[in-house]
Amino acid sequence: MNKNNSNISPSISTATLSTAEPSSSSIDFEFDKQHIWHPYTSMNNALPAFGVVSAKECLLTLDDGRQLIDGTSSWWACVHGYSHPAIVDAMQSQLGKLSHVMFGGITHQPAIELSKKLVAMTSDNLTKVFLADSGSIAVEVALKMALQYWQGRNQPNKQRILTVKCGYHGDTFAAMSICDPEGGMHTMFGDSVTQHEFVSAPQACFGACFNPSELGEMRAKLEAMQGEIAAVIIEPILQGAGGMRFYHPDYLLGLRQLCDEFKVLLILDEIATGFGRTGKMFAYEHAASNGQTVEADILCLGKALTGGYISLAVTMCSDEVAQGISDSPAGVFMHGPTFMGNPLACSAACASLDLLANGEWQGQIASIEAQLSTELAEAIDYPQVKDVRVLGAIGVIEMKSTVNTAQLQQEFVDLGVWIRPFSNLIYIMPPYVITPEQLTKLTSAMKIVASKLVESVEVSGFISHG
């Protein structure tokens, strides 16, 4: 984002913070601290956890009655906000009929209806649907699909996966092996992590000029390892947990062409970007030029699939990929989770996709993007801010140094918002139903904390690893 000399003041009135009657619910924080592991947290020096007793629309109600405006959509999943009646009603209705049944040898209408919707809304070549448990498992499934496909095409030596640096695809072992090799977890687990192939991350920013030579390293790697690379996997347009990087759509177009040229499958990981977050229903739709479009051979979806109400993910593939898997020595696809095709989750997903089908999300995302662009612009002038960027319903202030997650998290709660920074990033991905007033409170809080952080860095070295 270009520097903006506007005089927007990063202020927020604590007097306007929403409160509710204190809840009678008691949360045993001491037991939680002593016995329950939270994500990426030490049991010896745990990050503080705040007690949430209820949530509605964009507000999280704490056990002490305070209400926080949710800026993360619960890790980017609750796009319709909390307690949406359409999703709640669908789940309650399904719960009374069939909450779960094994998917082996049995089918049910919620899975069929969801699969119909997904086949209709994704690119034409994606016709086969595998209903998984979570985003990480969807990626595991995609990688297994790619390897089995080449077994069925009598090229069993194609077992390597190629990807770009700064990516993130999940925390299970196969997914972890294709996350960024330096910022990820490779070094912690040594030889237990399968070694795959990496090239430099896309460099041209979204909206900037693109130089096709940027794909030179990818071409060279594909050429050098012909007969070994089974698939390329990438997050379309947005590299999420790897740094909230927005890259040029032409990189994705060029990558699709290279995969075709070198006969390699293309896996698109839309777990974080799917269902409207970047301004398109799927981020790969940004990559369209002169009649050219990008189609994945294998597509991973999750997070917002159910509106964030229950865990569910999907791996879709083309007829060709499905046929290759069926022609492999096993003759079947070798994966089958216990909760595969869970009817309760499928019913939630159907309701969530029906809400998206009315098209209202498009206007919501456009309004959020415009407001984020205006209200975050001034932060680029803060001395310790490296970059400010916005795409769809994503707003990012990138600092020059790593921030203290625990301290900033507390500051945000004191300002009446829920924002969870990581690394050197202060970012929001709010629910699509957020009001302009609520969004202003989020952006104001981001600027307050970023500006205080600048002062603290200059005075006392506030920034530290958190």
Walk me through what this model shows.
This protein folds into 2 domains: 29-83 and 360-452, Aspartate Aminotransferase, domain 1; 98-358, 3-Layer(aba) Sandwich (Aspartate Aminotransferase, domain 2), CATH 3.40.640. It has helices at 29-35, 73-76, 85-95, 109-121, 135-152, 173-176, 186-189, 216-224, 249-261, 319-326, 343-357, 360-376, 405-414, 436-460, and strands spanning 52-56, 59-62, 67-70, 126-132, 160-164, 197-199, 229-234, 238-239, 245-246, 265-269, 298-301, 313-318, 385-391, 394-399, 417-418, 425-428. Strand 2 and strand 3 form a beta hairpin. Mean pLDDT is 92; it is low at 1-23 and 456-466. It is 34% helix and 15% strand. It has 14 helices and 16 strands. The strands form 4 sheets. It has a 7-stranded mixed β-sheet, sandwiched between helices. Strands 1-2-3-15 form a 4-stranded mixed β-sheet. The radius of gyration is 22 Å and the shape is globular. The protein has 466 residues and is of the alpha/beta class. The relative contact order is 0.16.
